[in-house]
Design a protein that fits this description.
Helix content is 40%, strand content 13%. Helix 1 packs antiparallel against helix 3, helix 2 crosses helix 9 and helix 4 packs across helix 10.
Length: 337
């Protein structure tokens, strides 16, 4: 609680010290300080209510925060169909030698097994969600870096034309600063680029407080997960978003391709007695699961180098993860059976 207060307070104070006359972007940052403070107060109130045993009041407070943010939230999604924006995506699972995986086994946990849905950063107890990564590398890191030979992997594609909408919590401030520095002409007027920066500035306290590493990884309850779980609850009640795009907390830097470190969560919408959510299965196609070792053996030479940092190729990651991703791209995607 106190940590969350400090994060919001220091951020607002920093916004108010910006020289608003220096540039349009500086004015945009300075001008949103009061709004951010109000949003922060709602978020802190929500966390306090949850810790006090009042989850309904906690959600109401977060709902007010999103209402205050209003059009800023709308700007955290790409106009139109986002399917091409998020592709490709991947999912990994540990191999069970006694139970060969079918495609559906790498989709979300079936409804009849909802009792095994564990508390996660973006989750609601008992509600199955589809979790995907922007690279095989981030999937592996999120699983705790297990032996790659113990894993099966699938490539996912969002189906074009489904009007997929994702709440984009995937940009850290240094990434936005690099965008402004590299393309200053896009921020000379009060255009879309400037508005998007303003939206990320306004929403940052929510994003930041959804991105705190667990202090006690083995604990049964993680207060760090209170806000992201409430945000996911808000998404399930919204008709504007199918899921959330968010950056991994395992990294302080991005590769040159930001998708490399992106995670995605898509909550089930049509709850059934058993099986998978029909709404989600209509949004994605996937390859059949392949054991990592088999996929690596069949991997072609790298055609799409993406594991780079500051322009330098990360040869080891390209040889391992990049090659497997290329092999997965040679395999056809199909509907989830």
């Amino acid at each position: 609680m106190e940590f969350a207060k400090t994060v919001v307070q220091e951020y607002v104070e920093g916004m108010r010290t910006v020289d608003r006359y220096r540039s349009l972007i500086d004015f945009v940052v300075w001008s949103r300080a009061d709004l951010v403070e109000e949003v922060g107060d709602c978020v802190i109130e929500g966390i306090r209510a949850y810790l006090g045993g009042h989850p309904a009041a906690a959600f109401s407070a977060v709902e007010r925060a999103f209402s205050i943010l209003g059009p800023h939230i709308d700007l955290l999604k790409t106009p139109g169909d986002m399917s091409q924006f998020v592709n490709p995506m991947y999912r990994m699972r540990s191999i069970d030698p006694s139970h060969p995986f079918e495609k559906a086994d790498l989709f979300h946990i079936p409804f009849e097994l909802r009792h095994i849905v564990r508390p996660m950063r973006y989750s609601i107890n008992g509600l199955p969600c589809l979790y995907l990564g922007g690279s095989t590398y981030v999937c592996w890191k999120e699983l705790g870096e297990p032996d790659l030979e113990s894993l099966s992997v699938s490539r996912f594609e969002a189906v074009p034309g489904t009007n997929l909408k994702v709440l984009n919590f995937g940009h850290r401030m240094p990434v936005l600063a690099a965008w402004i520095e590299s393309r200053p002409d896009e921020f000379e007027g009060d255009g879309r680029g400037t508005a998007i920066i303003g939206a990320h500035v306004a929403c940052w306290p929510v994003v930041a407080l959804c991105s705190i590493r667990k202090l006690y990884p083995e604990a049964a309850f993680h207060p760090e997960y209170i806000l992201p779980q409430l945000v996911l609850q808000w998404v399930t009640r919204s008709d504007e978003f199918h899921g959330i795009r968010y950056f991994s907390t395992h990294y302080t830097d991005y590769h040159d391709d930001p998708k490399t470190y992106m995670n995605y969560v898509f909550p089930a919408r049509q709850v059934e007695p058993a099986g998978r959510c029909p709404s989600l299965t209509s949004l994605f196609r996937m390859t059949s699961p392949v054991p990592w070792g088999s996929c690596a053996e069949d991997a072609p030479s790298v055609k799409r180098p993406r594991y780079k940092y500051e322009g330098e190729l990360l040869a080891e990651l390209e040889h391992s993860h990049g090659r497997v991703e290329d092999a997965l791209h040679q395999r056809p995607t199909e509907v989830v059976a």
